[in-house]
Specification:
about 5% helix, about 425 residues, mainly beta, 30 strands, Neuraminidase, 2 domains
Length: about 425
């Protein structure tokens, strides 16, 4: 079942978030390859903060401060993200294991509910996703999870497997605690996906599905309206969520936190969605900047040349990451030279952001005049501005240098809303 929209409660969300020293507004420009900076896939919380864990950094949002910051992952102890296979509501506790839902009161098990055989409606949705017709006896396996509750109902994600044909169909289910009856709502439109996260409001259920298709790795966010029975996908882009894949989700009160392949989206009722992605670094102390190359076969055998200093508490955009180095923007562009032959061959690529060239040697070697001599420096994915031909080759303007990754802190910067 489809709907033309979703209730205003879900459409209007917002939150303010920075990871670093201050809030900056910018247009997102970090390439997908910079997942080291961009993604914080694991979300968990304790009584004081929400934690967004990445490859090397953890973004921490302290509730009282309302101002999160980044710290190295090794310096913060974070409890693992909750799998949401157990939940409490009032004096009741519920847990799921495979196709069984357990209902506890106090320390006693009140009842265990086992999913009955799939309904005809569920089997019809299964037939829609079969790639080939099969006369094999159906070998169906049905599983529940994750789990959420509202008054009188327990909600859960559903997955139905056919082990004979590898067909998969997913959906939403619930147990009515008064009638002690299950209800299933499967949809072939969800595709080959598995339920990853669920949360329940008084009037609607949000459930997140992770695609398991190699052709389409998008995350799917579905809404179920309790009163009308509508079950429909919410377009992430229409909500203003950057990215195509949601890596983690968490709810704190009426606020939702989504970690995506682009950054982090934070929502609260009554305002517009806002997104944050890492496009810059900064430091509390002065950081040396260098000219460097990607190999050691250069003039005079130098591979790293001191160049400038990044002042403390000054943010700078990250162009690229190579090993333990960030290529970052410098405050004042400099001039250099590339050979005329190299410019004729690759200049059309070097003018652009995110160079479309294959292989590990996708970089431009530029000669930078400094202190009376030329120094070789390699750059990647930062535009080279042509300034005219000279006897030394093509003169170019460039605004990049390299800093050591361990010297700086990544900053999650607020991004502009999508048009």
């Amino acid at each position: 079942m489809k709907a033309n929209g979703m209730d205003s409660r879900i459409l209007r969300w917002s939150a303010a978030f920075i990871c670093g020293f201050f809030l900056l507004t910018t247009t997102p420009s970090v390439a997908q390859e910079l997942t080291y900076l961009q993604t914080f896939p694991d979300i968990s919380a304790d009584s004081t903060a929400v934690y967004f864990q990445g490859e090397a950094w953890t973004a921490v949002w302290k509730f009282k401060a309302e101002r999160p910051g980044c710290v190295p992952e090794s310096l913060v102890a974070v409890s693992p993200a909750e799998k949401r296979l157990r939940i409490s509501h009032g004096g009741n506790r519920f847990a799921i294991a495979g196709d069984t839902l357990w209902w506890f009161q106090g320390v006693m098990t009140r009842k265990a509910f086992v999913l009955p055989y799939p309904t005809d409606a569920a089997l019809r949705e299964m037939e829609k996703v079969r790639e080939t017709e099969s006369e094999e006896v159906l070998a169906l396996v049905e599983e529940m999870g994750p789990i959420a509750t509202t008054e009188g109902r327990v909600w859960f994600g559903l997955t139905l497997f056919d082990e004979g044909t590898d067909a998969v169909v997913s959906g939403l289910g619930w147990l009515n605690l008064q009638t002690e009856r299950f209800v299933r709502l499967y949809s072939a439109d969800i595709g080959k996906s598995s339920p990853k996260w669920i949360t329940a409001f008084s009037d609607s259920i949000l459930i997140l599905f992770d695609s398991e298709s190699e052709k389409d790795e998008r995350s799917l966010l579905y809404v179920y309206r309790i009163e009308s029975g509508d079950f429909f996908e919410v377009n992430l882009k229409s909500l203003g969520i950057f990215g195509e894949r949601i890596l983690g989700a968490h709810r704190e009160g009426d606020s939702l936190f989504f970690s995506t392949d682009h950054g982090i989206s934070l929502w609260r009722p009554g305002a517009s969605a806002r997104n944050f992605s890492t496009v810059a670094i900064a430091s509390h102390t002065p950081v040396p900047m260098s000219l460097r190359t990607f190999d050691s076969v250069i003039e005079r055998g130098h591979t790293e040349v001191p160049f400038d200093t990044l002042p403390p508490r000054v943010s700078t955009r990250v162009w690229w990451k190579a090993g333990d180095w960030y290529e970052v923007a410098i405050p004042n562009p400099v001039e250099g030279f590339v050979s005329t032959q190299d410019w004729e061959m690759s200049g059309h690529i070097w003018r652009e952001r995110y160079w479309d060239c294959p292989g590990d040697n996708c970089f431009a070697r530029v000669q930078i005049p400094m202190r009376g001599q030329n120094h070789s420096a390699d750059f990647i994915h930062t535009p080279l501005k042509p300034l005219g031909s000279t006897l030394d080759g093509m003169k170019v303007g460039i605004d990049a240098a390299w800093v050591r990754a361990e010297k700086v802190v990544p900053i999650l910067m607020e991004t502009k809303s999508q048009p």
